Amino acid sequence: MKVVVFDGSFNGFLTTVFEVYEYKMAQPAINRQDAANGSLFGEYHEVSTNSEKTKRVLLKLEQKLSKTAMQQLYKTFLSEQPGIDNVLLRYVQYIISSKHGVENDYGNADVLMVQQVSKKVEREKHRMEAFVRFQLTKDGLYYALIQPDYNVLPLIAAHFKNRYADQRWLIYDCRRKYGLYYDLDEVAEVTIDFIADTQNSGDKNAMYDESENLYQELWKQYFDSVNIKARKNTKLHIQHMPKRYWKYLVEKEPR
Fold this sequence. Notes:
Elements: E1 2-6, H1 10-22, E2 29-32, E3 43-46, H2 51-64, H3 67-78, H4 84-97, H5 109-131, E4 135-136, E5 142-146, H6 153-163, E6 169-173, E7 178-182, E8 187-190, H7 201-207, H8 212-226, H9 234-240
Parallel strand pairs: 1-2, 1-3, 5-6
Antiparallel strand pairs: 4-5, 6-7, 7-8
Helix pairs in contact: 1-2, 3-5, 4-5, 5-6
């Protein structure tokens, strides 16, 4: 078995697909660099992301797949689920080798997996767009912390750039240790040493703008006012807003 390692980027994955064909690899085991543990068995091959190889694979896929299927492939990649890169490799190989369109051939296990996983990632994207809560710092930056199940930051960038075009903001993924920063012009990916402990009241008061505590209290009052106790349905509430998202929601913080 040939063990193939790439840098973890989508372009790196596409380069890997190219080199699987280029070097005629049979059933390679693909690993992302940060997750690779090495192997005592098999030959090791490290992929260097190459823009030309990436473009050639993209062009081939765009000829074979619909726009929707291309988006599903990318979302599935962002799921970061164990073994998903090998699923995607087999999916791509099946697509390329088929003379007719097979993106809806759910009798194929890999096609079905891509369909199912991409839906989960899309659902997580919508939840992040709904559950992000910005907080204003003293230097005029609106920041929000998230910890999504999947790497959805690349998918939500356009939504927040369009919706909050008149303010500087930072959305930081605490699980993956990177964020998106908008400077009133462009959205850029950033990696910073960010303090994610928002439960420490001392840190909060030192960091927040003077008006932020008032805004948070008003938001909590609004949240309380629209929740009618007589119609409280905890099970339904958790279904629409799972507890794993509560950590960074202003309205869920204790008064």
